[in-house]
C-alpha cells in the first residue's frame, strides 16, 4: 500500500516503524482503521427449526436459504428446536406416514444445524437481536397443531413464549412459508403474508391458509414470491414474512424472497 499521509511531526526516527505497524493494523490506511473501529457489532439471530424434511419438519431449502442470507448479512447465528416428539414421521420417498417410526424434533433439526443446536427452552431475548422461523410442515405439526386444528390450533409453549418475548422486547421476528400462522395465532393484530388467497390453477396450492390467518384475527397481505414483492414488513409489530414454498415456482425465486425477508429482519435490528 502507498505510504500513510502522516504529519511531518511524526516522522521521527521511529516514524518508519510506526508506519509499518499502522499499515499492518489497517491495510486500507488510517481511514479503514477508524471506520472499522466505528463498525457496529453483528446482529445475533436465533433460527428456530421444527425437524428435518418438508412434510414432517423444517423445509431444508428454506432453512439453507435463511442461513446463507444471514451469513451474507454478517449475522451471528444460533439454531434452536423444541425437545419434543414429532407429530409423526413421513417417508418422503412415498409421501406417506411411517407408522412404526417416532423421532425427536431437536434430534432431527440437528441434521440441518450440523449438530450445533440448542433446546428452544434456552432461547432468550437477552442473547439475540432477532428470531427467524423457516417453514415446512413441521411449523404446522411440531411447533403448533395448525395442520390438524386450523384456526383452533395450539402453539408449542416454548414457541409461544419466544414469539411473545421478542414482540414485547421490540425485536424483529421473521417467518416464511407456513410459519406465519404462528405469529397470526400468538400476536394479536399482526400483519403477515403467505402469498395469494386463491389457488390460481395450482400455483398457490395452500391459498386456504390465508383464510385461516384472517380467522385467527391477523391481517393477511397478498404478496408475490418473486424479488419484486417478496416480503411483507409489519413495521408496528416488527414481523417480516414471505411466502416461499407456499407458491409453486422456481427455486431461485424462493431463495430471493427469503433473502428479502432476512434483509428486512436485519435492518430492523438496527445493527
UniProtKB/TrEMBL annotation:
GO terms for cellular component: mitochondrion. The keyword Ubl conjugation does not apply. It is found in: Mitochondrion. Keywords: Mitochondrion, Transit peptide. Signal peptide: none annotated. The keyword Mitochondrion applies. SUPFAM superfamilies: Class I glutamine amidotransferase-like (SSF52317). NCBIfam families: PRK11780.1. This is GAL3A protein.
Amino acid at each position: 500500500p502507498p505510504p500513510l499521509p502522516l504529519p511531518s511531526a511524526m516522522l521521527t526516527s521511529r516514524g518508519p516503524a510506526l508506519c509499518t505497524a499502522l499499515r499492518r493494523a489497517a491495510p486500507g490506511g488510517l481511514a479503514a482503521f477508524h471506520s472499522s473501529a466505528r463498525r457496529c457489532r453483528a446482529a445475533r439471530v436465533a433460527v428456530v427449526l421444527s425437524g428435518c424434511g418438508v412434510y414432517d419438519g423444517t423445509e431444508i431449502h428454506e432453512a439453507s436459504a435463511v442461513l446463507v442470507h444471514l451469513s451474507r448479512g454478517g449475522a451471528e447465528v444460533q439454531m434452536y428446536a423444541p425437545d419434543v416428539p414429532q407429530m409423526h414421521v413421513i417417508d418422503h420417498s412415498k409421501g406417506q406416514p411411517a407408522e412404526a417410526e417416532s423421532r425427536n424434533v431437536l434430534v432431527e433439526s440437528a441434521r440441518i444445524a450440523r449438530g450445533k443446536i440448542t433446546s428452544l427452552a434456552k432461547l432468550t431475548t437477552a442473547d439475540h437481536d432477532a428470531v427467524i422461523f423457516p417453514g415446512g410442515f413441521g411449523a404446522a405439526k411440531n411447533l403448533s397443531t395448525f395442520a390438524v386444528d386450523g384456526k383452533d390450533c395450539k402453539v408449542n409453549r416454548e414457541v409461544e413464549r419466544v414469539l411473545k418475548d421478542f414482540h414485547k422486547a421490540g425485536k424483529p421476528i421473521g417467518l416464511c412459508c407456513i410459519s406465519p400462522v404462528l405469529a397470526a395465532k400468538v400476536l394479536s393484530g399482526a400483519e403477515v403474508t403467505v402469498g395469494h388467497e386463491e389457488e390460481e390453477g395450482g400455483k398457490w396450492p395452500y391459498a386456504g391458509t390465508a383464510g385461516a390467518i384472517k380467522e385467527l384475527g391477523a391481517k393477511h397481505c397478498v404478496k408475490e414470491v418473486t424479488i419484486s414483492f417478496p416480503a411483507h414488513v409489519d413495521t408496528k409489530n416488527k414481523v417480516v414474512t414471505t411466502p416461499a414454498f407456499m407458491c409453486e415456482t422456481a427455486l431461485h425465486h424462493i431463495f430471493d424472497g427469503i433473502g428479502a425477508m432476512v434483509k428486512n429482519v436485519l435492518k430492523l435490528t438496527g445493527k
